[in-house]
Every structure is written in structure tokens, then in C-alpha cells.
Amino acid sequence: MLLTIETTCDETAAAIIDRDLSVRAARVASQEEVHQRFQGVVPELAARAHLERILPIVGGVFDDANIHPQEDLSAIAVATQPGLPGSLLVGLAAAKALCVALDKPLISIHHVHAHIYACQLAHGVDVFPCVGFVVSGGHTNLYNCRSASDWSYLGGTIDDAVGEAFDKVAVMLGLPYPGGPHLSRLAEAGDDRAYPLPRPMLRDRETLNLSFSGLKTAVRYKIVGTGKQDFAQTQLSEQERSDLAASFQRAAIDCIVAKAELALKQTMRQRLCVGGGVAANQLLRSELTNMGERLGCEVIVAPPELCTDNAVMGAIAWEKFAVSDFSELDIDITPGLLRA
């Protein structure tokens, strides 16, 4: 069995996973109430919250799985990249301490790669090779995944991640944090053609990069104009809010689907695997499925419960365990996103 630990952003998570990828136990502690008043994640507060929760979460999965850690664990895995520096350090420090105390090897996990591996957990069979697409609050990245351990970066956002754009537009529309799910619900009553919003880089067939900053700015202009007006002084009707949410959501998803299609064509892969928090969006899941049927390609989207940050997707560590790819205890975090 593996103990996997996830603390890359604002979720404190741990899981016990068997070699056959079955999950013995899993827990996640959310920090929504910590960051809600700021309408976004505050890195220092996130790190402090991880410090408070990491030991109860790890102890909880030991209890839930009813195991003896020193006898039953084969290794301890932890996400070391990418993510918030303080958050990553808490998880890594906990993992190192457990490795020393239990005399177990350490395995480092690439958080973004793990999001794609969540598709394999749900699919039940090997999903590689494939095009991997991570769409979340912090990442919007495409990969050519030749195997579970052989990846190359194809392209991604050059500014905001799509999930960040969802959350920021939700704030503009007066929705609670985290805003993405609330925006999607508001959009259900809207007309996605009501506002002609831009779709940055949609027709650029020379690159697999994306951009969402301009789309986010265009929504702002629709609400308050190009001046210095305050959002609190605007008075959109409920239908206008729904229409704007729907129009934004449609524009963002159009960009994602177009680049996914282009990546499949450029790599000549027959399978697309999608993970990350935004992959829980029902419209996106539907549009990706339609694209796959049109192209004759298989589309696998991680189940909603494995889209947001969790430790179960840390099962990717078994791939490293199989080849004894362990990390030394002096390994450090890598907060920035590696293009690999």
C-alpha cells in the first residue's frame, strides 16, 4: 500500500491506495471557509491551514484503512510540484518525517500529471498513450503522454488559468467563492449568445497555447464599461447576469475544446484524457464528448469527485514505485510549472 499526500494549494488530502489502484481510505479537508472572505486563495493562510490539518488527515486515513503503517505501507508519496510554496512545504515536510519514522522510501509526485492519471483510476485500464489536458484553477495545460511516465508539454495558457477566469468572473457577477460552480449554475438560465465575447487564440492553428485574460476583461467591460466604475454601483438584472455567465462559459469552453481537437490532430493520438477542477463542468464534459464522437476519438474525463484536488490521484506514484524511482530525503519543492 501507498500513503499519498496532497497539499499543493488549498486542499489538505491523504489516501491509502493498493497496488491494484483500489482505494482503502481517502480524506480531504477543504479551506473554502478560510479564503471565502478574500474571494481567492491567500497563500500564507493556506499554508497555516495545512499545518493545522495535515496530521489529523493522515492519522484519519490510517484509522479508516485499519492498517499498521510500519508493516503495511510500501512507500510514501507526496506532491512536490507545482503549487504554492508554503503549501507544498507542509506536505513535503510531513512526508519526509513519516519516511524517517517508518523507514519507508519517498516518492515525489507531479501534481498536474496526477490529474491526468485520475482518468486511469476511473477507466480501469491503461489510458496511455494519450493527449492529456488539465483544466483547473491554477493550470490549463496540454501534454503528449506517451506513457504514464513519459510526457512532453504541448501548450497551455499564456496568462490566466481557465479556472481562475471562472472564479474572477464569478466575483464580478457577485457570486460566492469558489465561484466556478456557482457561475455554471447561474449560466443554466442564460442565453450563451446574448453577449458576443471574444475567444482568444481560438483560430490560431499554429499554437496550442490559450489565453483567458482578455476574455475576463471583456466581461468586466460588459458590466462596468471601460472607465473606473465600481462593480457595486452596477445594476444588472438577474437575466443579464445569467446571460453574461452563459456567454462567458460558452466562450471559455469553445477555446478549450478547439485546442483539445487541435492537439489530437497534431499528435495523431486517438485518446484524450482530461482532469482538473474545471473538468467537472457539465457543459465542458458534454462538448468534449461530442468532439470525440465527431473525430472518432476516445475521450475520458476524470469523474467529478476526482477532478478537484485530492490524494487518490497520487496513485500515479505506483508507476515510479514499479521502477524504484524514489527521491532522496533532501528533495525540495518546485513551485513553478515545469513545461514537461
Fold topology:
Elements: E1 2-6, E2 11-17, E3 23-30, H1 32-35, H2 43-65, H3 69-72, E4 75-81, H4 85-102, E5 106-110, H5 111-123, E6 130-135, E7 140-147, E8 150-156, H6 162-172, H7 179-187, H8 213-224, H9 238-267, E9 271-275, H10 282-295, E10 298-301, H11 317-321
Parallel strand pairs: 1-4, 4-5, 6-9, 9-10
Antiparallel strand pairs: 1-2, 2-3, 6-7, 7-8
Descriptive notes:
The protein is an alpha/beta fold. Helix content is 42%, strand content 18%. The chain contains eleven helices and ten strands. It has helices spanning 32-35, 43-65, 69-72, 85-102, 111-123, 162-172, 179-187, 213-224, 238-267, 282-295, 317-321; strands spanning 2-6, 11-17, 23-30, 75-81, 106-110, 130-135, 140-147, 150-156, 271-275, 298-301. The strands form two sheets. The protein has a five-stranded mixed beta sheet with strand order 3-2-1-4-5. Helix 6 (162-172) packs across helix 7 (179-187) and helix 7 (179-187) crosses helix 9 (238-267). The longest helix has 30 residues, at 238-267. The chain is globular, with a radius of gyration of 20 Å. The two termini are 28 Å apart.
CATH level 1 name of the largest domain: Alpha Beta
* CATH homologous superfamily caption of the largest domain: ATPase, nucleotide binding domain
Mean pLDDT: 93
Tell me the strand order in the biggest sheet: 3-2-1-4-5
Please work out how many helical segments DSSP would assign: 11
In percent, how helical is the residue content? 40-55%
At CATH level 3, the topology of the largest domain is Nucleotidyltransferase, domain 5
Name the helix and strand elements from N-terminus to C-terminus, one letter apiece: EEEHHHEHEHEEEHHHHEHEH
Q: Indicate the CATH architecture of the largest domain.
A: 2-Layer Sandwich
Point out poorly predicted stretches: none
Please state the CA-atom Rg, rounded to the nearest Å.
20 Å
**Biggest sheet overview:** 5 strands, mixed
From the spread of the alpha carbons, the general shape counts as: globular
How many beta-strand segments?
Answer: 10
Report the end-to-end length measured between terminal Cα atoms. Answer: 28 Å
Provide the structure class: alpha/beta
Number of domains: 2
- How much of the sequence lies in strands comes to 15-25%
